[in-house]
Amino acid sequence: MVLLLFSSAFFIIQYRVQRFIYRRIKKIYEDVSLLETSNFTDREIATDMRTLTEQVERFAKDKKIEIETLKVRETYRKEFLGNISHELKTPLFTVQGYIDTLIDGAHKDKVIRKKYLQRAQKGVERLTYIVKDMDMITKLEVGDMSLEVVEFDIVELVQQVFDQFEMKAAKKNITLTFDMDYTDPIIVFADQERIQQVIANLVVNSIKYGKQNGTTEVAIEDLINNKVIVRVTDNGEGIKKEFIPRLFERFFRVDQSGSRREGGSGLGLAIVKHIIEAHNESIYVDSEPGIGSEFSFTLEKVSDNIVDIEVVVEE
Question: Is 287 helix (H, G, I), strand (E, B) or coil?
Fold first, then answer.
């Protein structure tokens, strides 16, 4: 009888304690679910303290990571707004200054009028570049820009880019060259116009940050699985390691002084990254301050060995 009473009392107390713990834990789950209902809505509420502790610790860890990610994104957002404000403000104020001067009476002098209008035109062109490049990035990000994929010779395309920027490189006495003499064409499968833009942006960057009497070299190497890798290497300023992960952000500048020595929209590398990723390919960066930088990307290669198989049918 005593044993029966003890057992009954034990189970009643255990049940009441479990119900008490259950209600408290349920309240905790409900409070936490206000932060993210998807975390606990479909889960069975645990009454085991060890299980509860593991779940809460996991939740706290996930939330900590999420908060840190949001803080980083907020920092990037502020920097992005500051950068885009700087990029737009400079040409806008330049154009406004020249136009105001002309309105104030400078237009009467034909020489000054022509000179100021030409400078204002350059400011408008800078704004146009920025808007067009941002529009292109947006289309690439949302998948709204279709690629016209064709077969073409990547060696010939690189040479066209070299010819295009030969005069720009000559101003700093920079040599544009291949790593070797490519006697045979290398046929790839991609959007020719977009890949030309990628190579052009990388070559222009190498000229901008290349040293006087330096070299910009392009190499095209075979990889496995019908892939080639295009390497654009210079012996210029180089980039510090802490800046490399952010190189492809919009308007991000390694030069944190706020001044821009060279022109451009400030979106070149961001466009390069999006174009390569739109081809489902990869882009890499390797750089050493004071030694130089190498930007490389992969492309699909068209097989140049087509073997005709003769089938012999025995009668």
Answer: strand
